[in-house]
Design goal:
The chain is mainly α. Helices cover 76% and strands 0% of the residues. The chain has twelve helices and no strands. Helix 2 packs across helix 5, helix 4 runs antiparallel to helix 11 and helix 5 crosses helix 8. The protein is globular and about 65 Å long. The mean pLDDT is 85.
Length: 295
Amino acid sequence: MNLIFSSYTIYRYGFKGWFTLLWKDGWRYFILAFVDVEGNYFTVLAYRYTTILSAQLINFWAIVVVVIISFLFMHVRYRPTQILGIIVCIGGMGLLIASDHITGANGGFAPNQLKGDLFALLGSSFYGLSNVYDEYLVSKRPFYEVIGQMGFWGMFINGVQAAIFDRGSFQNANWTHTTGGYLAGFTILLFLFYILAPLTFRLSSAAFFNISLLTANFWGLIIGLHLFGLHVHWMYPLAFLLIIVGLVTYFVMEGRLGEAKKPWLGEAQERGVDGFATAKRQMRRVANAASSGHV
């Protein structure tokens, strides 16, 4: 991510402009990269100590963090239909967790559940902070700049943290072609995730993004049906349907621009960037079409 998007940023800004970016705004992107890295780190670390069921329950906290921060600091105001949509989605996720508990799919031994639960709570808090801050930055700055800087600073933060805390894991790992293939596949998928997430933030919001991720368990099951021979519990389709209904409810009363129009950018989005998938670009296109007599 750093190699591709930082290189493109240098191409657009030149080396002088890129170093100026690091000097003036590097601290902003360092904070973004830090909270994102720690969100990943503590969430994964939680699974070492607690059960998947417990970690999933606590990960609901990310939605709460996003909604609270967006409301208090980003001046986002949620409609009753949006609140209802979030509740319906959480109900669907509750059914998923209940079905996993009934079938024993998400149980298992927890070496230190309290420690794992605290790590999961910390990780979901960092995730929520990261999503809101990412939405804020990508609404005001070019897409390639945000992704490139996130990858640039994240590379150093990840490297230092891994060298300090995970050196033993690297030394004791069984490095095989299969392991390398899994890591390569995971890296590619995560790369695509980090490209699509900011675009989702522009088109909708961090809140919508997080409740949309509640469908992840269902898609994981679909893959598991083919890879691991898992069986579908009757609650799964119902839970997935509830989550989809919740997402539709969340957006049912949205206007033409919906959540793409950010309240912190001004009524005409004058403080935002005119970039791909932004409300400002959509508004400009509508205005140009109207002035040309097409609307």
